[in-house]
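Lab notebook, bench 4. The sequencing result for the construct came back, and we need a structural model before the next group meeting so we can plan mutations. Quick request posted to the team channel:

Model the 3D structure of this chain.
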Amino acid sequence: MVVAAQTVGINGPGVRLEGILQAPPRARGPVIFAHGSGSSRHSPRNALVAEVLGEAGLATPRLDLLTADEEIDSRIVFDLERLADRLNCASAWAGADPELEDLTVGLFGASTGAGAALIAAARDPGRIGAVVSRGGRPDLARAELSRVLAPTLLIVGGEDHEVLELNRMAFERLSCHARLEVVPGATHLFPEPGAIEEVARLARDWFVRHLNGGEAGDHGVGILKG
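Done. Here's the predicted structure in token form:
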């Protein structure tokens, strides 16, 4: 089922966040997207993932966590505290929707957005029900990693060697139910044939399993803890 996209605006602390929302009827929960630096809510990779999640009944707000002016300031781009604050505002916004207010929220982060997602999850364990990182920098969450309670999936390309090593180190610091999935042959942005589709499949299965009383159990060949 193709779900129509609509433009949304979310009021954060002193800023208005622009985004795109696709929400199927009777959504089983929202998954908020947090892209990395140099990307935006119009990312074709995240749009593909959002389409797959939407087919599974998940609402998918894709947000720009920074304004256009902030995106060109390297100090702000790597201000994970600011990004996490805005993600927490977005999850509160999702919780204010009458159709979503009783549902936990998923976070899908790429690059620096993944670090911000983990910090946001650590700060709001009652609302954040699952996290997925795509080619992310979970290491940037640092001390917050051990406080994350939400089931967390780290997806990394097998040829993205530096980021893979950073993910392995972050994975060891997570104390929640977590999984590290390596997509063979894929590089950082997963441009290889079938690679981003595999990311979408893995993310869909994780959110369906762990958000709002989803399916029990865990399957696959990734490295698993918890």
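The mean pLDDT is 88.
Will bring this to the meeting.
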